[in-house]
Structure formats: structure tokens, C-alpha cells
Amino acid sequence: MNAFSHVFDPLDLAIIDRVYEAALAQLEARSAFHDAESDEDIKDALRKRVMICAAIGQFDFDTLYERVVG
User: Which domain holds residue 61?
Assistant: First the structure.
């Protein structure tokens, strides 16, 4: 089984979405520079990180958030 073969239920997907939004807000608050091209690269990398961290196993918002930003 690879990291992307995990199936998420609707609650998992809601948590994943909220973790992504919270982590993105934290990154945007820390960044003084905004460039549309690099912002998309950062968002893509963050999406991948969230999904990889979520694929590790069971999680709640706090646990997943800590995995992502840790």
C-alpha cells in the first residue's frame, strides 16, 4: 500500500480541508512577500504535505495540524 491509496471518509476530508486552510493562513501571516507564481507553488506543496501527513493514519484536527506544521 502506498501513501496515496488511503480512502478518506467525509469527516476526514472536512478535517483535511480545515487543516490546509489553517496552515495556509499561518504561512500567509508569516510571509511578508507575496508573488502569485510562488504562492501557487507553496499552496501545491502544502496540499501534498497535508495529504501525506493524513495518509499516515487516524487523526483529528489538532493531530494533523501538528504533523503538517511541525
Answer: 10-69
Q: Which helix (H) or strand (E) holds 43?
A: helix 36-54
17-44: per-residue pLDDT in tens?
999 999 999 988 887 667 767 788 889 9
How many domains does the structure of the chain reveal?
1
Q: What is the DSSP letter of 33?
A: -
Give the Cα separation of 24 and 4 in Å (integer): 22
In this structure, are residues 54 and 8 in contact, taking their beta carbons and an 8 Å threshold?
yes
Residues 65 and 51: their CA atoms lie apart, in Å, by 11
pTM of the model: 0.83
Query: Does 4 reside within a domain?
Result: no
Q: What residue type is 70 in one-letter code?
A: G
